[in-house]
Every structure is written in structure tokens, then in C-alpha cells.
Amino acid sequence: FCLLTDHNSQHTADHRNATMIASRAAGCAAGRRWLIKGGSASWQGRLHHVCDAGDERALKTLPRLFPANGIAGSEMGGFLVHGPSRRFSTVPDDANARTKSSQCPLSGRSLSSDAAAAASATTSTFPNDDVTAKNSKGNQPELTKVPSMPVFGSFFVAVPFIGDRLSTFMGIPIMTAGNAYEFYPEMRRRFGDFYALDIPGIGSGPRGTCVVLNDPAEMIKVVRQEGSHPRGGVESLFPFQSWMRSRGMAAAGKGDDPGFMGRGDTWRRLRTFLQTDLLSPQAARGYVPGVAEAAAIASRGANSYRENLNDFFNYAAFDMFTSVFFGQLTRTADPEAPTSAEDDEFCRVAVESLNLLIAQLMDKTQLPLHKMGVETEAYRKYVEAQDAVNRIAREKISRFTERHEAGELDEFEKASYLARAIDRLKADDCAVTAEEFEDICVLLLNASVDTTSTFMCWMAVHLAVNPAAQEELYEEIRAHVDGSGGAFTAESLAKKRSPYLHAALRESHRLTPVHPTTMTKSNSAGAITVHGREFPKDSVFTFDQFSLGMDPDVVDDPQAFRPERWLPESLEAAKGTPMEVLDHPFYRDPFSQGARRCPGSRVAVNETLAFLARLVYDWRIEAPEGVETYRDVKYEQQTLLMPQLPQLKFVPRPRNT
Fold first, then answer.
1. Running DSSP on this structure, what letter comes out for residue 146?
2. CB under 8 Å to 50, separation ≥6 — which residues?
3. Fewer CB within 10 Å, N side or C side of the chain?
4. Residue 445 to residue 283: CA distance in whole angstroms
5. What DSSP character marks residue 473?
């Protein structure tokens, strides 16, 4: 048999109590296999201790069974005991080495002759306490391979009935719909800053390998190697692609061309049209007056939605985007204002369709069933919701287009994104067909709600449980708005005028991003060297923009909400410290980078700034009893990591009573 274990320890860098981590073990003799649990956070879940091996085959087999441990065959047979200030090994280092290597260091009993011989011959090298264990190429972290299996990849938890046990056995933290903020930092603790896991349908190769990076300097290499036709996250949305093709949408492409959901010439042509009048700073600023008016109307409804604040923020996000897209005020977030049943339904089914889409991606059985042509119940529900989104969006676009042609638009509507897009469509050199135009407009409307509402929900939580920060933000906003007659303008919301507002959003993103990994890229232009290791063309990399920011060795008191971290003077003081890296653009927002950056990112940021500024200006937000920190608020994986908002209390500011 083969016994492997590890010892609890304190992290020598900061003397924190170690987190228990399960190590893996397997025994070959007599076909037996079992696990001894133990572990220390500072060792990141690697196999540390081989006490005994009944026959030599165990020593040779373990590296093949668990190559992710990074232990070469010649290194098996040694043991290591790690404590706060000591390291011991069976590697011979004195005259008594032979005696020492013939005994188990924990039990004191004799090792078998084969195991003792293996131990005596061992020249073990184990990773040190640094999370970035160095390799032979210099001061670079060593790639760690997370165990995986066919179909489910590295997500053993998805295996029916035995998923949790398999995950524990393989030394992988269990991922659920409500623990992403815990899962990714734990993955970093166990596997380091540079690891590869298999995510079928998203990664590259037959197993779907995806390399996780924490260093923006390395991720930027990947972004620069994207080429003219970069990989996009939409390529992995197989339910959406299938639905588009089944409905004969022009933007879905034909034959082998996946159209807008791919990365070829069709994607580039449609993407260029889509982002015009949307992504540039000047275009985004032009929509601020309408967004600010929609935000002011939406803010009135805050107290009326106390029992379902998630719906309130979804409605507010929809109202603000329709002010951009149509130049219209839909007022769905204000229950006292007249609204249309059509707008209410669209907001509901848009969120529902995206939630159902992500649920299929999370369920690792859905992709193989899809490839076999099996139409699951989950897919049928998704299609029903997506058809409703499609129907309502096309009806709204059609009515707007008819009014545009008849010259019936008001000045606000004439300045909208859709009116400008219709004008561009008529140009002689327009490369987009009318059918493609309508398709991408539907897609844009469908995706307009969730990211913004999730961002705003978390920000409301942080302000409610941090009243001092909320009041400082209120004073900053009031100083600008009262001085301009109560108007919220692009200038008053700019970073130079409202630095604390921007800092508060940045701190909310550090603590509770809409997801820890929102940037997945591929080196489509050619082979690449990352952390000193060569990767072939079309490898897939994802950037963890969350875990480093929760490391106490990088951020002081990382669980605390402190917007002042991101004020200019604090950022200047952070230069030359570990904290400096977090001011890199890759850590600043959830909208990805490069050619596939979210085309509505600037508009979404302006919507978030305008609405939260308005909300704090109108109300003092208070948390209910029992909610003292953001960690008291549960969340779950929907389209993004949506908090299940408690019944926050909205108290009118004195000037409004």
C-alpha cells in the first residue's frame, strides 16, 4: 500500500492559521486505493509525504496517476514534514541517513526494503512556501496541471452521485452555484498562480484545457497574440448558437461559418458595425443625459421594491439602456409610473433566458448530449425564453424603424443608438444587410441588463454595510450636484470630479466582481511563451482578476471595503509594493480587454455611475439586522454572480422629505 499525508501548519509569511486541504493518495499493491486527508494552505495541496510503499510499483505508478502533483518518479519515496520554521526530509544528509530512511517518520515503524531503498536513493525537491514555485527556467512559476477526466474535465463535482467525493479525492475544491468567491482563491492556494484545468467546450484540445493566469504582464502577451480574428467567449455558447441556427438568423452564418458567434470575417464585419456609436468615449458620453434622466426616474421606485430588490435593479438597468438604444424612457423601475406590459415581460425573459443559458454551460452533461443531438428539457426551456426575447425585441425595433422612416422621432430618439445605426445602414458603403442588422440589435438588447444590474446590486450591498463610506460618497455627489442645480452631467460623473465614486466602484469590483474570470483569450496568431513555457497556437488562457486582490500578502485587510485604496494618493503610495499590480487595466473592470472587449462597456460603466450616484443622492441605504458585512449576503451563479439581496431600507435624504 502507499500512504500519503501532510501536516497542518501556519503560513510563515503572515502567521495565518493554515487551511485544511485534502491531499491525494493511491496504492497499487493488491489493487487497493484510498485517501488520507490533511494538508496546509502554504503547500497548495500537493502530495508531500510518502510514508510507505509495499512494492516499488506504487512509487512508479503514482506520478502517472496524478501528474498534476509535479512529482517525478525518481522523487517518490521521500517524505517531508513542514512546520512553521522547519523542513525535514528522508533525503540522506548525515551519517545516520540510512537508519532514518528505513523508518516512517510519523509512526516510527520500519519501511519495507523496497521503500527504504527508494527513500535512500531519493533526491527530492519540493516547492517552497512561495505560491509561485520556481522552475528550471528561472524566476518563473511552474505550471501545475489540475486533474481531469473525460466529459467532465476538472469539474469532478459534476459527476452524478459521487461528484463531491471525487473532487475531494482528487484534491480539487468543490465548486457550487454559490461559492465562486471562495473557489477561485482556494484554487490559487492549491495550484499556484499558473495552472491548467480542463473545461470541456471552453478550453482547447480534446479535453478542453484552459490555462489560468494571475499575472497581467503574462496575460497581455496572450492579448497581443490574438490576431485579427480573436477568440470570443460567445464561441462556447452552444445553446445560443443552436437556437440562432434553428431560427434561420442571418447573423448565425452559413455552413462552416459561425457568423457573429465565431471569429471569422463575418464576425469582424458585424462587430465593427455594432460597436460604432457605442464603444468610443465620445459616443458613450453623449448618452449620459438620457441615462441620468432614466436613473432619476428609476431611483423613485427603490423603496417600493424592498421585497424584491433584484427585480428593481434589473428594471433600472433596462430603463437606462433603452434610453441609450431607443432614446425612450420606459420607467419600468418606478411602480407609480405608467409602463407597458411588453417592457415588463422583456425585462423578465431577457434575464431568464441568460440564466437558462448559463445553467446549461455549468451542467457538464449538456454539451455531450447536445453533440449527440439530444434536445434536453433545459434546452427547451431556454428556447422558449429566448423566443420571447426575440419576438418582443423585433417588434420594438420594427415599430421604431417605421417611425424613423416616417420622420416621427423626437430629438431624444434621433440621438439614440438605434436611430444612428439605421442611418449607417442606409449608407452606400455599409457592409451589413438589413437582416443581419436586426439580428445583432436583438442580441444587444438581450445582453443589456444582466452585467449592469449585477454590478449595481453588489455596490448597493457594500454601501449599505459601510455607512461611513456611503456618507463620504454622498457628500462628494451632493457638492457637485447641488452646485449645478441638481443636474447629473457627464462632467459631474467624471473621475476627476467624482474620484470617490469611481474608487467605490473599483473597490466593489475587487471584492465582488460579476465573476472572477471574465477574460478568456486564445493566442490565435501563433505559438506563445508564457511564464517561460511554450504553448502552441490556439491555446486557451483565462485571467483570474479576483484571487490576487483577496490575498493579505498583496492587499491590507482584503475583506474590508475601503474605496480610498483607489484614490490617486493611495495608488501613488502603492507603487513598488505588491498592491501596485492591482491597478493594472486588466484588474479594473469586468468587461475583458482587446478586440473582444464588451462593446457596451463604456455605456454600462456610465449607467452604473449615474444610477448609484442618483440612488445615494436620493436615499440613505441601510442594511437589515443580521447583515453586517457583504459576506452575510448569499449569492448564486445566474448569468453572473448575483447577490440575493436582503430587504435593504431606503431612507429619504433630508432635502427630499
1. P
2. 2, 3, 4, 59, 62, 76, 77, 78, 79
3. C
4. 18
5. H
Strand partners, 651: 620
Give residue-wise pLDDT tens across range 208-259.
999 999 999 999 999 999 998 898 888 889 999 999 999 999 999 988 899 9
Neighbouring-strand partners of residue 144: 195
Of the candidates 168, 176, 172, the one whose C-alpha atom is nearest the C-alpha of residue 634 is 176
Evaluate if pTM is beyond 0.70: yes
Q: Which residues pair with 529 in a beta bridge?
A: 534
Indicate the residue type of 180: A
Q: Please count the other Cβ atoms lying within 10 Å of the Cβ belonging to residue 340.
A: 12
Residues facing 621 on adjacent strands: 650
Residues 604, 452 contacting (CB under 8 angstroms): yes
Q: What's the rounded Cα separation, in Å, for the pair 45 and 21?
A: 6
Residues 202 and 210: their CA atoms lie apart, in Å, by 8
Burial of 57 (0-12, 13-18, 19+ CB in 10 A): middle
Helix (H, G, I), strand (E, B) or coil at 153: strand
> Residue 47 and residue 61: Cα distance in Å, rounded?
14
As a whole number of angstroms, the distance between CA 565 and CA 559 comes to 13
Nearest to 196 by CA among 376, 632, 205: 205
Rounded to an integer, what distance in angstroms lies between the CA atom of residue 282 and that of residue 292? Answer: 16
What are the CB-based long-range contacts (under 8 Å, 24+) for 121-124? 121/74, 121/77, 122/74, 122/75, 122/76, 122/77, 122/78, 122/90, 122/91, 123/74, 123/75, 123/91, 124/75, 124/78, 124/80, 124/89, 124/90, 124/91
The per-residue DSSP string of 38-103 comes to ---GGGTT---EEEEESSHHHHHHHHHH-GGG---GGGTT-BEEE-SS-EEESS--STTHHHHHTB
What does R_g of the chain's alpha carbons equal in angstroms? 28
Q: Nearest 5 degrees, angle CA 323-CA 327-CA 328?
A: 70
pLDDT at 172: 96
Cell of 522: 486564445
> What are the grid coordinates assigned to 460, written together?
448597493
Task: Give the count of beta carbons closer than 10 Å to the beta carbon of residue 73.
Answer: 13
Query: What is the structure's pLDDT at 116?
Result: 40
For 288, the 3-state DSSP assignment is helix
Q: Which uninterrupted H or E stretch holds 136?
A: none
Mean residue pLDDT of the chain comes to 81
CA distance 67 to 507: 38
C-alpha cell at 327: 432614446
Query: Which residues sit opposite 163 in a β-bridge?
Result: none
Write down the H helix ranges in 488-625: 499-511, 568-574, 601-618
Strands 144-145 and 194-198: parallel
* CA torsion through residues 362, 363, 365, 366, sign: negative
**Residue pointed to by grid coordinates 486557451:** 540
Asked whether 506 and 566 are in contact (CB, 8 A), the reply is: yes
Alpha helices, DSSP H, located in 137-237 = 163-169, 180-191, 216-224
Distance from the first to the final alpha carbon of the chain: 75
- Cell representation of residue 51: 510514508
Q: Interhelix angle for 309-325 vs 288-299, to 10°?
A: 150
Q: What integer is the mean pLDDT of 330-355?
A: 91
Which amino acid is residue 630, in one-letter code?
Y
Residue that the C-alpha cell 521521500 belongs to: 78
Q: Is 114 exposed, middle or buried (0-12, 13-18, 19+ CB in 10 A)?
A: middle
- C-alpha span between 654 and 657 (Å, rounded): 5
Query: How are beta strands 540-543 and 209-213 bridged, if at all?
Result: parallel
